[in-house]
Amino acid sequence: MEFVLIAIAILVVGLVAGIGLLVSAGRRTTRLDDDAVAGTTLTRPRPPAPQAPESPPTPHGSTASGLGLPPETVELPPAEPEPGLVFDTPPPSAGRLVRLRSRLARSQSSLGRGLLTVLAREKLTEDDWEEIEETLLAADIGIGATTRIVERLRTQSMVLATASGTELRDLLVSELTGVLGPDLDRTLGTERRDGRPGVVLVVGVNGAGKTTTVGKIARALVGDGKSVILGAADTFRAAAADQLETWGERVGVLTVRGREGGDPASVAFEAVRTGVEAEVDTVVVDTAGRLHTKSGLMDELGKVKRVVEKQAPVTEVLLVLDATTGQNGVVQARVFTEAVEVTGVVLTKLDGTAKGGIVVRVQQELGIPVKLVGLGEGADDLAPFEPKAFAEAIVG
Ligand SMILES: Nc1nc2c(ncn2[C@@H]2O[C@H](COP(=O)(O)OP(=O)(O)OP(=O)(O)O)[C@@H](O)[C@H]2O)c(=O)[nH]1
């Protein structure tokens, strides 16, 4: 009897010491499994430098089993912030395009001001109309949309005979809005569906701003009061997962990641499974774009989607495109649209180009709505795309 009691006491002391070691060794990362291939880990937000006291919602507790391994309890951050556990409070996404309109300065000066200067001339000659056409083409609006805008402006200016500067400006805004597809559905599929989280897959070539965009989306969702989990399924570059963890940590969002070179589908699966158990609103998964062959990329993205859908339907597939790459970017984009059914485009780096018209080209050539635009390197420089506000901003 005494022997049994001693054995139990040793077991209890051992357990307590083990848990203590785990906690003190750093509460930041909790292993989910020891699978050498997947090596999935889950990153807890660590307390950043103390600042604003308010905290965004955090996911509820969860358990994790690892792929094929027995379930293991994972401690997630508490719903109420611990002392010192404070996160950034990003602004909501609504109205961001208007707030960031000055970021379109380059497009504004080359397209907007260029057109307004010509339209302000007393009587428009054939040369003036040609100049308008060239300005629109130079802004990458594309031939079809340019022809439509020029024809309609010509007709309208004849009807109006002597139009004021303001009238012509409004006319230009309305023609530009018209070619930007004001009726396209740009709702982001981030909502929970049938008791499961919304799942957003983010695809695109490396360097387009994919990882940054995933981080910005997480912030925007948190700013809108949503709970989020991130999946770092770009296992080609460990730094991409580190980058994503840092984004997540700042807003109290968990990141599931794998070993460098590991199986991206396993990480995506684990992220979504964790999201289902934690009952979060949205899981956002970053994927790799650096594959040597088109068929390799298609196979991998197809697999990621299939595997994820064992847990929850994918509600949005976002293709990230760098606005400064022009036609080249559109050609690259086709590879992705053939690999997965893309439901929306994120056009990044619009702050770095005079070719704001690329939005029109991308939508027309790919037949997919631009849903978000990147307007800078700042954490909250991502805005929902609104045709009217965009046209207003580039006309100036
Ligand atoms: N000016 C500007 N820079 C941006 C924008 N979006 C992303 N970037 C920058 O683009 C660079 C590449 O971004 P990443 O997010 O690392 O690109 P990626 O596609 O994920 O590339 P990998 O991490 O290699 O997969 C970074 O320096 C970002 O800060 C934007 O809207 N405007």
Structural features, described:
The chain is built from 13 helices and 12 strands. The chain is about 45% helix and about 15% strand. Residues about 15-40 and about 45-80 have low confidence and may be disordered. The longest helix is centred in the first third of the chain and has 23 residues, at about 1-25. The chain has a 10-stranded mixed sheet, with helices on both faces. The protein has a two-stranded antiparallel sheet with strand order 3-4. Helix 8 (about 240-250) links the parallel strand 6 (about 230-235) and strand 7. It is elongated.
Which SSEs are present, and which pair or pack?
Blueprint: H1 2-24, E1 29-31, E2 41-43, E3 62-64, E4 72-74, H2 96-99, H3 105-119, H4 126-138, H5 143-160, H6 165-179, E5 198-203, H7 210-223, E6 228-233, H8 238-251, E7 254-257, H9 264-278, E8 282-287, H10 294-308, E9 314-322, H11 326-339, E10 344-348, H12 358-366, E11 370-374, E12 382-384, H13 387-395
Parallel strand pairs: 5-8, 5-9, 6-7, 6-8, 9-10, 10-11
Antiparallel strand pairs: 1-2, 2-7, 3-4, 11-12
The structure holds guanosine-5'-triphosphate.
Guanosine-5'-triphosphate (GTP) binds at residues 206-212, 234, 237, 240, 348-349, 351-352, 374-377, 381.
